Amino acid sequence: MTDVLSIEDLWVEGRPPGGKYKPIVKGVSFNVKKGEVVALIGESGSGKSTISLASMGFARPGCRISAGTIKVNGENVMDMTTKERHKLRGEKVAYVAQSAAASFNPAIKIGDQVIEAPVFHGLQTASEATEVAVDLYKKLDLPDADRIGGRYPHQVSGGQLQRLMAAMALSCGPDLLILDEPTTALDVTTQIEVLKAFKDIIREQNTAAIYVTHDLAVVAQVADRILVLNGGEVQELGDTDQIVHNPAHEYTKTLMNAVRPAPNQLELDHKTGDDDPAPILTASNITAGYGSGPSKKTILRDVTVDVPEGSVVGVIGESGCGKSTLARVIAGLTPQWEGEVTITGHKANPRVEKRDKETLRDCQIVFQMADTALNPRQRISDLLGRPLQFYHGLKGKEKADRVAELLELVELPAAFASRFPGELSGGQKQRVNLARSLAANPKLVLCDEVTSALDTVVAASVIDLLQDLKERLGLSYMFISHDLSTVASFADHIVVLYAGRVVEKGLSSQVFQPPYHPYTQLLLNSVPEMRQGWLEEVATTDEAKAASAGSVELREVGCPFSNRCAKAIKGVCETKTPPLRKIETGHEIACHLETDVLPK
Amino acid sequence: MLQLIVNRCLQGLLTLVLASIIIFAATEILPGDVAEAILGQNRNDAAALEALREELGLNRPAIVRYFDWFFGILQGDLGVSLSTDRPIADMMSGRIWNTARLAIMTACVAIPLALILGLISAIRAGGVLDKSLAVTTLSLIAVPEFFIGLGLMTIFAVELKWLGANANIRPYYDFGRIVHAMALPVMTLGFAVLAHMLRMTRASVINIFTSPYIEMAVLKGIPKRRIVMRHALPNALSPIFAVIALNLAYMVSGVIIVETIFAVPGLSRLLIDGVALRDIPLIQACAMLFGAVYIVVNLLADIFSIIFNPRLRFPK
Questions:
Q1: What's the whole-number average pLDDT of chain A?
Q2: Does residue B121 lie in a domain region?
């Protein structure tokens, strides 16, 4: 009896509001032994979260567990009374959700939420539970362990909150831990710290765990066995080693093929920056931010970026570094305080409402969330028709024809014109979002994290589409992403932003090959590799330790990265801002380190 | 946070000044002026009219008269009533207490009741209790106040003779007698404000139910009642405060029907009397007071919302 969880022939049904129940999990069986980590992988809609929640006897509103047995420690969850189920959830099985920021109650102190379950279920007194919690905080490498529990969720960083949620799950000493995409919302650098903390604590407490994710490289680091799901059915179940290196099922192979190689392992032809065409966009010496008066917050400082005609410029950096702000400044949505934006040779007004139609047409922006960017109450024909009418004065049949053309351009059937965004899948919506920007016949498209909300396979197809459109229409892109592998495979030039400053820029082949800026090196090393054991290697390097000691800080003087840099020169880096220095033609790095001591 | 509260208070003051301008302008636009009102039948006598205007200072520009009036109010001088020749402040002082008594007693009963029933509705959303509460309270709000008031009076005061029909409280009344007299007006007014607050409490709590942190609490094995009280309610307070404030203001300024039916000599009656007698200074003073009540209770609701929001209480 070593199975902590055994699920047999589980069926879960779901229904849209007012609709009929349809099966979303179809006869899934698997088990988890004590001390074992089983990963559930698959695209969104594969039922992986639903299965993990079912193991707590829970179905989201609109869903119901219709058949099957779910046994935790040999007891059937489906036969339990409400009270017994409450006890099961508070004592035996614990859950770690994707977004800690949303899963912590904003009105209650963190510590009170962490100890709520064990205290409420009478496992421990409040003071005992607090002791256990503080102990967990220390094990999870949280700073200021004795006092962090007295803070509110908005007062700690995202990575810390994610670890605090792990502490909340572990506070009752569960037999089974369910981790539902616990690092997906994090930056790669933070992901390492959190993954390492999770892995260590699972091993130490010898807890059984279910790890739900779509990121195969992450799975390779933490899982003992992998269950591959598609459309609510099991495709393949096997040891991590076998699934990663020797997938048997076709679907698993598709998943593996969609994974892009880490950027520094990419074969890039090395060309110098001499033969670049004239820039279609120049943003020079941009300083910008939000607010005014005492609450004024400067995000970008003295940022200069060029996009040569017909090329793709990738902008990378962690969240909070100003990537989106840069796109907004260029689009005129956030007027810059200093500096100048030039689009196709014409100086663009800082404010979008004061720009002329030509400038507006030339530069279009595509937002990350197609869900929020597309009006849910308008048909696709209206969404695409409006810019056609605005920019080109098209009406009636002409407009309808052009809408059909645009849909064809983004590889969607023309019949979609009469649908609403809600009837489309995530990837399809992102294609409509892209088609909307193409309606203007732009020369430059600003893509702000356009693939971040999509599954690996879908994201890969969107990138292929972007590549194809670039060649067919002669577009230029500014491609903002925190996913380095995607950027590396697609961009000709790279700009590395850190805390609102450009720390490195150049051709992809220059930026992704040594010498690196220390921050670029950190980013590159943080991209998870498929190799098992990679996590342990990378988490113990000096660079990773130094990086996890600090967080992104917007600062006026000094190198912004100095508080996280393993190579920082004391007395220099934190007081003097390093200027961008030419390493070779087209390649610039802002660092005080001599070229020959820059990370290799 | 202090900065926020101070800002909000300044905004409240500004609103009050704007309200005073609107009130003054509105009475200024009305045909005829105070002098004509005083002279009544004799208002066609041009010489007398002119003399009286001179005496009352009505010939001065409107702006001057506005500031005169406004600074008077700031110093507690509400002016003199035309119909009674007494200072308006004196006329109001007794009535304020009558109106406030009705409002406070109603608030003490209706607010806790609305909150409790709203929370029960939220916990049992979709259940029999929730649905019957919805039907009852919505019917009560749909029936006009005068109908409910007269209905209650017919049943409890006339037929059963359990409660009093006259809520004009005399100073020598003991507590039991006050309750006896006030029960019916409090019930009538309570019914009018209950539904609104109850529905808002239910809606804001249920709105919070879809948050991931509520799912998290469910997955920690916390029972529904505790989830509502501990996890949902603290995050639902802001809209609840706002609707309580609106209803409190209504209990002070919108109770003319209840005051009339139950013969409460309150402020609304005073205002109506003022209108009937064209007593413009009295109308202005009453309108100013009601405006101030609206602004102050809404200000309080905002301040409470700020205080109960940890993001504002403890900035990063």
A1: 87
A2: yes
- What pLDDT is attached to residue B281? 83
**CATH code, domain carrying B159:** 1.10.3720.10
One domain for residues B66 and B100: no
Beta bridge partners of A75: A72
Pairing of strands A297-308, A279-290: antiparallel
Name, in order, each residue with C-beta under 8 angstroms of A382's C-beta and a sequence gap of 6 or more: none
Q: B-chain residues within 8 Å CB-CB of A168?
A: 220
How far B252 CA sits from the closest chain A CA (Å)?
A: 32
pLDDT mean for each 10 residues of chain A (600 residues)? 85 84 90 92 84 89 88 89 89 87 90 91 89 87 85 84 88 89 81 85 88 87 91 90 88 81 61 68 91 80 92 89 90 91 90 90 89 88 92 90 91 90 85 91 91 80 89 91 84 92 91 89 87 84 80 84 87 89 88 85
The answer to whether A157 touches B257, Cβ cutoff 8 Å, is: no
Same domain, B270 and B157: yes
Residues B271 and B283: their CA atoms lie apart, in Å, by: 6
Q: Is A433 left (phi over 0), alpha (psi -120 to 50) or beta?
A: alpha
Instruction: Check CB contact under 8 Å for B222 and A116.
Output: yes
Q: How far is B311 from chain A (nearest CA, A)?
A: 7
- Strand bridging mode A312-316 / A493-498: parallel
Chain A contacts of B229, Cβ < 8 Å?
A: none
Q: Is the pLDDT of residue B131 over 80?
A: yes
E strands, A274-353, in order: 279-290, 297-308, 312-316, 338-343, 346-348
Report phi then psi at A64, rounded to 5.
Answer: -150, 145
Asked whether the ipTM of the predicted complex exceeds the cut of 0.85, the reply is no
Nearest C-alpha neighbor of A485 from the set A157, A218, A228, A179: A218
Range of B10's domain? 2-70
**Count of the separate structural domains present in chain B:** 2
Binary contact (A102, B219; C-beta < 8 A): no
Q: Is residue B161 domain-resident?
A: yes
**Do A564 and A550 meet the contact criterion of CB atoms below 8 Å apart?**
yes
Per the domain annotation, does B82 fall within a domain? Answer: no
Give the number of other Cβ atoms within 10 Å of residue B264's Cβ.
24
The CATH topology of domain A3-259 is Rossmann fold (3.40.50)
Residue B75, in any domain of the structure: no
Closest-CA residue of B relative to A98 is B212
Helices and strands of chain A, counted as H and E runs: 23, 22
Structure-token pair, residue B208:
């919070």
Q: How far apart are CA A11 and CA A59, in angstroms?
A: 11
Could you give the CA distance from residue A383 to residue A403 in angstroms, rounded to a whole number? Answer: 9
Does 3.40.50.300 match the CATH number of domain A273-377+420-597?
yes
Answer yes or no: do B305 and B158 share one domain.
yes
Residue labelled with tokens 């003073």? B285
| C-alpha–C-alpha distance, residues A382 and B212, integer Å | 34
Q: A86 to chain B: nearest residue by CA?
A: B221
Q: Hey, what are A501's tokens?
A: 């400053």
Indicate the DSSP class of residue A559: -
pLDDT digits (tens, 9 = 90+) for A559-579: 989 888 888 888 888 888 898
In the numeric block, which tokens belong to residue A116? Answer: 């709520």
What does the pLDDT average to over B236-248? 90
For A321-351, the pLDDT digits (tens) are: 888 899 999 999 989 999 999 998 889 999 9
CB contacts of A121 in chain B (<8 Å) are 221
By three-state DSSP, how is residue A359 classified?
A: helix
Report CA A29 to chain centroid distance, whole Å.
30
pTM, rounded to two decimals: 0.78
- What is the pLDDT at residue A266? 61
Q: Which are the contacts of A425, defined by CB distance < 8 A and separation ≥ 6? A: none
B226–A103 CB contact, under 8 Å:
no
